[in-house]
Design brief:
- The chain is an alpha+beta fold and about 140 residues long.
- It folds into 2 domains: about 1-85, Roll (2,3-Dihydroxybiphenyl 1,2-Dioxygenase, domain 1); about 85-139, Signal recognition particle alu RNA binding heterodimer, srp9/1.
- The protein has 3 helices and 9 strands.
- The longest helix has 10 residues, at about 15-25.
- The radius of gyration is 16 Å and the shape is globular.
């Protein structure tokens, strides 16, 4: 047995807001969106349509977003959990300083850029739902 891939599925209260945040601030591309009617998959969010799930990608990083009611239905053990996490999702990136300068005024919370004892330039930020994302580039 071997693991093949990890794709986080973020529970969110407002799917459109999360898709917009990840597109406009972090440069992700929407690859699929599932309407609440579950009658297909849309390549983009259509105005006036409500969605329960979206998949987004930037380079080799894929993330899933699922509206809270749908998430709690599908992941029953999350019924009493709150949105957010006590975990960080760490993403390796090229051009970290430029990326940091570009987003530092656009996110709810961000740490200072630092070089770690293990030789990586890194910073952490919170997304619009309170999830913690870390970004690192070898110094």
């Amino acid at each position: 047995m071997g693991f093949n891939k990890l794709t986080p599925n973020f529970e969110v209260s407002d799917l459109r807001e999360s898709v917009h945040f990840y597109q406009s601030v972090l440069g992700f591309t929407l690859t699929a969106a599932v309407p609440e009617t579950h009658d297909g998959v849309d390549p983009e969010l259509i105005e006036g349509k409500n969605y329960v799930f979206a998949m987004m990608k930037n380079g080799d990083v894929e993330l899933m977003f699922q509206r809270s009611d749908s998430f709690k239905h599908d992941v029953e053990i999350a019924t009493n959990e709150i949105i957010g996490a006590s975990v960080s999702f760490y993403i390796e990136i090229a051009g970290i300083q430029e990326f940091y300068n570009e987003i530092k005024g656009k996110v709810p919370a961000i740490t200072a850029m630092k070089t770690t004892w293990y030789g990586v330039n890194e910073f952490y930020m919170k997304d619009n739902s309170g999830y913690i994302l870390g970004f690192g580039e070898k110094a």
